[in-house]
Amino acid sequence: MSEQVYGYVRVSSKDQNEERQLIAMREFGVRPEAIYMDKQSGKDFDRPAYRRLLRRLKAGDTLVIKSIDRLGRNYEEILEQWRIITKTKGTAIVVLDMPLLDTREGRDLTGTLIADIVLQLLSYVAQTEREFIRQRQAEGIAAAKARGQRFGRPELPVPDEFYPLFERWQDSEISAREAARTLNVTHNTFLRWAVKMGGRKIF
Q: Where do the coiled-coil regions begin and end (predicted)?
């Protein structure tokens, strides 16, 4: 079987338009029938078209992608997929948005080495940026909490029916679960209200 050129296109949701990636594939010369496309998040590699593509790839083939993040959004996973494709499969990769990331035959050892180094650098920078964003979000949430801002669902107000049931529970006439069922709330909600009332028996 002759060497083949394949393209892989991914958009993160069904609402996103894949046309920009498809145009780039056609301009490179990838045949329409050789383009595999997924419309879902890159958070994992449970993607049907990508799995079919990996089974099809063989030594000497070339895989074309628009940008490196089409392989995924996680530093370790991108590197792992790159290793599988280039080392295990023996398939070349061409990243259209980054000409240095081109491992096709004919490139010398230095060119291949540069591609590997650039890939690791780009993946590291992307991962670091995501961690920085998460850190800033966490710091923002912590600062908002320090100012008294509340997060999550608002706490249920204590209904009037709670108080007689609370007294009966305190007198061991009913269990906390029975009281909670009567109020149509969870067991934990009833106990949380009871604690606020200074409940003496929390079990």
A: none
